[in-house]
Write a structure and sequence with these properties.
Structural class: mainly alpha
Strand content: under 5%
Distance between the termini: 44 Å
Shape: elongated
Largest sheet: 2 strands, antiparallel
Number of helices: 4
Length: 135
């Protein structure tokens, strides 16, 4: 391992660490790994919301707070996918609740639930393969 020094002969405050001419993890790689884990957690929160409704709300809050950190990466498409999934599920749930009085609401809610689960599972599979989502 070697440290680079500046022109005064003092070590740089943030030395470049090398091992056998290869650079060890950069901050961007670590951040991307953390953001990938966070994206995974949000998909899990979405799926858990099928049983405990409020976890999806926690997920959408995290999406909006962390969105700037994933901008420009393949994870941005996952965040967009998750945000759209949340809002469209909310719309279809409200339509289902309102139309329950007319007898078709239960069908709307069931179709919306299947669609919601499909989107979360598809997102998980693409995330696992490091692929962006088609947004």
């Amino acid at each position: 391992m070697t440290e680079q020094s500046n022109t005064t002969g003092q070590p740089n405050p943030e030395p470049a660490v090398t091992m056998n001419s290869t650079t060890v993890h950069t901050t961007n790689t670590v951040d991307q790994d953390q953001n990938k884990t966070l994206t995974l957690v949000i998909y899990i929160l979405q799926l858990v919301s099928c049983f405990v409704g409020f976890t999806s709300i926690v997920g959408i809050i995290i999406n909006y707070i962390k969105r700037a950190e994933v901008r420009g990466t393949y994870l941005e498409s996952h965040f967009t996918w998750q945000i759209r999934t949340f809002w469209w599920m909310l719309v279809w749930s409200l339509i289902g609740l309102v139309t329950t009085f007319f007898g078709i609401g239960v069908i709307v809610l069931l179709v919306a639930a299947v669609w919601f689960i499909y989107r979360a599972v598809r997102g998980l599979l693409n995330l696992n393969d490091n692929k962006p989502m088609p947004v």
